[in-house]
Amino acid sequence: MGDSGTVVLGGVGRGAAPMTSTLLTQAQSLVPTLAERAAATDADRSVPAATVDAYRTAGILRALQPRRFGGEQAPFDVFSRIVEILAEGCGASAWVYAVLGEHQWIIASMAEQAQIDVWGDNPAAVASSSLAPRETARATTGGWRLSGKFPFSSGCLHAQWAIIGARAEDSAGNKPTRYMLVPMQQIEIVDDWHVLGLRGTASRTLVIDDVFVPAHRTVKLADLMAGTTPGSLVHPDYDVLRVPRGYLVPFSLPAVGFSLAKRALTHVPAAIRARLSRGARDLAESEVVQMALGEASAAIDLATLVMHTRRDESMAVIASGRPITADDIMRNRRDIAYATAQLRQGVEKLVEVLGSRIVYDSDPLQPLLRDILTISTHSVVHKQLAMVPYGRMLLGFPPGTGEA
Q1: pLDDT: is 127 or 169 the higher one?
Q2: pLDDT in tens, 144-167
Q3: pLDDT, tens digit (0-9, with 9 covering 90-100), for 184-221
């Protein structure tokens, strides 16, 4: 940490380019299969095990895993680009990848023994999560005892561990939020995922009944947000572990939505060109339709440009070693939340243009709309949570801390 409370980083490691090309190529090779499985994934409300096995075979699940435990230790933009690529085939499959892949970062941020617990005997192990601190863990000798119901655990059917956010009481009566690692064998998974969109993510509720969590299997959220976790000392050559979590997390799960919106933008003009209006006039000749398509494409393209620009800038900052400021962190979340809202508006305009056919489950635009609506409810892209801290900062008030 610098004197101003900012995080100072070194440069990225050498040899990243060949690894980047390989991971992105592997991800692209999976897109046709993901597309073929998309309808079944939606109907089954779960990504098939074969898809997660394919992720493992391709090596992409280890993108953010430290080299010491068999991972690629990749720059974060590589991981984010993989998410975008996979969403070209299936939104739910990309979302599950994003969750399981990103959580390698959280595991790597914990104490060395926690990482050994997870990856020592199984380097391919992954974790799902329920990160919002809905319960209080009771302090006990050597750690905490945790109970409660924890929803929205995407990919839990494929995980060996779960990362649970909880308020962790200490001897002084404080209750800072900690992320706690719990073996999936000690968790009951409740099949309650009957939802609007991202149906295939199987984001079910986890039930935990008085499970002991040793102290070394936890990490303070405040340390993740500051880039000062125990894992940053375990892996001194891995810059991502010294980056504040809030700086990069907007480029993880939200990346799914950008590919889905681009898919919608490809689908609708093609559908219109092949369709006649009720008056037997070529619908494509309507200036109303042309105007709407122009506006929708502007919203989606500009939103994507914002996301890619901010992501590239963020990686350049990490590589340069420039201090990462609170303004940097809040700006990334602000802009990705705003861009996601623009994506949603663009897709909704495409829906208006296409008309009543969207009501049919068989229409290719409908699952894209459902998934984007669902993504837009996530806390990382929640407009109020993103805009208010930045607005407070501009007014000279303390921005407060967000959780993601």
Answers
A1: 127
A2: 999 999 999 999 999 999 999 999
A3: 999 999 999 999 999 999 999 999 999 999 999 999 99
Both tokens assigned to 65? 């895993």
Domains assigned to the chain: 16-125 (1.10.540.10), 127-221 (2.40.110.10), 247-394 (1.20.140.10)
Q: Is the pTM of this model over 0.90?
A: yes
